[in-house]
Structures are given as structure tokens and as C-alpha cells.
């Protein structure tokens, strides 16, 4: 897997940046356009390299304060036909699909964790769907609510914040969760409160409904499913496989549990409300804990792989000279 970097730097930094790019393992091509940048004035440097080498090169460029004096842009070309690129990919440590570009992960999760009107709208709509599925004993509506819910974004951002100690990102994610869920639950409670006197469902609707019983009966598998979903979700973020997130959304009962709490409180079913609240808590904790574990594992692996590759290359060069 090949990546492309576009680096904008002032002329006095160009030589240092070029040396940094040339010496990076996994680089296939380096080109320079002197004076091509107008605002700010400077040079444009393009680098074609293996995706698994991007993180180390970005770290070295940041050490040169390139991001303060210019910019670093990362692109993923759809198709690159080059023997040099293939050779660079083979020499780079690890696999491109497993490579973590930490700034990319932070930016992606950060964008998904903002408390925006669209985020609130999706969470309210998802909780309303869950409440309808609960009172109508409709599994389809509950699954639809799981798919619509946007809560994984802030949960993933919270995990990234804990691992990378980006406390501003963590506060933003916690705000999105701490405000989003109560607002959505209040909206669901209000509609449930209006629906009972209108005769849309009876007050004893929660006495039946075997299809939704799992929501307020948390057990060991509740936490296990949350951990598996959190692992799969963070892997999909790292590997840029957004299609896998749909399965993650459908597998966890965060939104259905929030909807059940709202309906149960309105109907006076406090024990069931407590059970569903516990289900919600287990899901949130399990997802974040699993995502943190995945990020810690990848950080450990991505640090050790380049060191092992450098030792292997030194050993090969020693044998060649011998």
C-alpha cells in the first residue's frame, strides 16, 4: 500500500527535509519544486512511500517543525504502477493495512466526536427508533436504531485521548456523550409520556416483549460483545475500513439500552430501567476499554517493527560486506 506526502516548507528547511525523506526506509520517490508555494512562500516536496513508513517520516518532519512553518498532507493514491514503489513497500517494516498514522486516527475520531446538531439529531432519532422497537416488540426497529446511532465516534475519540493523552479531545468526546445521551433519553421519555394517554401503547407494555428482554438483563456476554465490538470498531478506524463499522453499530446495545431506560422510567418500571442502565454502562466501558487495548497494542508493535527491520538490514549489509 502506497502513500503520498505533499510537504510545503520554507526554502531554509528544504535541505533538511530532503535529507530526512531520502534516508527514510520505504521511500520510493522524492521530488522538489523550488519556489512553487506562494502562501506561505517556499518549496513543495512530494514523497512517494510505503504507507507503513508514513508515521515515522511524519514524526521526523514534525521534529523539524515543518507543521509550524508549512504543512504536511497525506494522500492515499488509488493506483500506483511502479517497480520502485513495489520494492519500497517490500522493504518497509510491517504491512500497509496494519500501519497506524496516529495523526490521521486522531483527526478522524476528533471529527466524529464533536457535539454538533447532526450528531444530536442522529442520536435522538436512533433513541426514538429504539423506543418504538421496545414498545412494539420490533427487533427490526431496534436493529435500525443500532445502525443509526453515532455514539461510536466519541467512544473511539475517548480511547485515542486516553492512549495519546490528548485531553482536549477527551473532553470533547466526553461532552458529546455526556450531553448527547441525556438529551436523547429525555426526548424519548417525552414521546413515551405523550404516547400513553394517546393510546399508542398500553402502560403495561414492558410486561411482555420477549424480543427486547436482553436489553434490561445484562450478563457476561453483554460485556464480551461490547469488547469484541470495540476491538472491531477501532481496527476498522485504523485500517480505514468503514464498512466494518456498520457491524459494530448493530452488535452493541448502547442506543437500545438508552431508549429502554427512558421508556421504563416513564412507565414506572424502575428495576428494568436500572438493568438497562447497567447494560448501557457495560457497553460504553467495554467498547472504550477494548479500543484502548487495540491502540496500545498497535503502538507497541509499530515501535518494535522498525527497530527489528533496522537490525535485519544492518545484519544483511554486514553479511554482504563480509
TrEMBL record:
Keywords: Membrane, Transmembrane, Transmembrane helix. The keyword Membrane applies. The chain crosses the membrane at residues 117-135, 141-163, 175-201, 221-238, 245-268, 280-301. The keyword Aminoacyl-tRNA synthetase does not apply. This is Hydrophobic protein (TIGR00271 family). It holds the Pfam family DUF389. It comes from the Bacteria.
Amino acid at each position: 500500500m502506497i502513500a503520498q506526502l505533499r510537504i510545503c516548507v520554507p526554502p531554509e528547511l528544504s535541505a533538511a527535509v530532503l535529507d530526512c525523506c531520502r534516508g527514510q526506509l520505504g521511500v520510493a520517490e522524492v521530488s522538489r519544486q523550488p519556489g512553487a508555494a506562494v502562501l506561505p512562500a517556499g518549496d513543495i516536496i512530494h514523497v512517494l512511500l510505503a504507507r507503513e513508513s508514513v508515521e515515522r517520516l511524519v514524526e521526523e518532519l514534525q521534529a523539524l517543525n515543518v507543521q509550524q512553518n508549512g504543512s504536511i498532507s497525506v494522500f492515499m493514491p488509488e493506483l500506483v504502477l511502479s517497480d520502485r514503489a513495489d520494492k519500497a513497500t517490500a522493504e518497509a517494516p510491517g504491512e500497509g493495512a496494519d500501519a497506524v498514522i496516529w495523526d490521521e486516527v486522531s483527526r478522524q475520531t476528533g471529527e466524529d466526536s464533536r457535539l454538533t446538531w447532526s450528531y444530536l439529531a442522529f442520536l435522538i432519532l436512533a433513541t426514538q427508533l429504539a423506543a418504538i422497537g421496545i414498545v412494539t416488540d420490533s427487533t427490526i426497529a431496534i436493529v435500525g436504531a443500532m445502525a443509526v446511532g453515532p455514539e461510536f465516534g466519541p467512544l473511539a475519540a475517548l480511547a485515542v485521548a486516553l492512549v495519546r493523552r490528548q485531553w482536549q479531545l477527551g473532553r470533547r468526546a466526553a461532552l458529546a456523550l455526556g450531553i448527547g445521551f441525556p438529551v436523547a433519553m429525555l426526548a424519548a421519555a417525552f414521546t413515551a409520556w405523550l404516547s400513553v394517554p394517546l393510546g399508542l401503547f398500553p402502560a403495561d407494555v414492558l410486561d411482555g416483549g420477549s424480543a427486547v428482554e436482553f436489553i434490561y438483563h445484562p450478563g457476561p456476554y453483554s460485556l464480551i460483545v461490547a469488547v469484541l465490538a470495540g476491538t472491531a470498531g477501532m481496527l476498522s478506524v485504523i485500517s480505514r475500513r468503514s464498512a466494518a463499522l456498520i457491524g459494530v453499530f448493530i452488535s452493541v446495545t448502547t442506543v437500545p439500552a438508552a431508549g429502554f431506560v427512558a421508556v421504563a422510567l416513564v412507565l414506572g418500571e424502575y428495576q428494568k430501567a436500572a438493568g438497562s442502565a447497567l447494560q448501557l454502562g457495560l457497553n460504553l466501558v467495554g467498547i472504550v476499554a477494548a479500543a484502548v487495548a487495540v491502540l496500545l497494542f498497535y503502538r507497541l508493535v509499530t515501535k518494535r517493527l522498525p527497530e527489528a527491520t533496522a537490525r535485519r538490514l544492518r545484519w544483511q549489509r554486514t553479511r554482504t560486506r563480509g
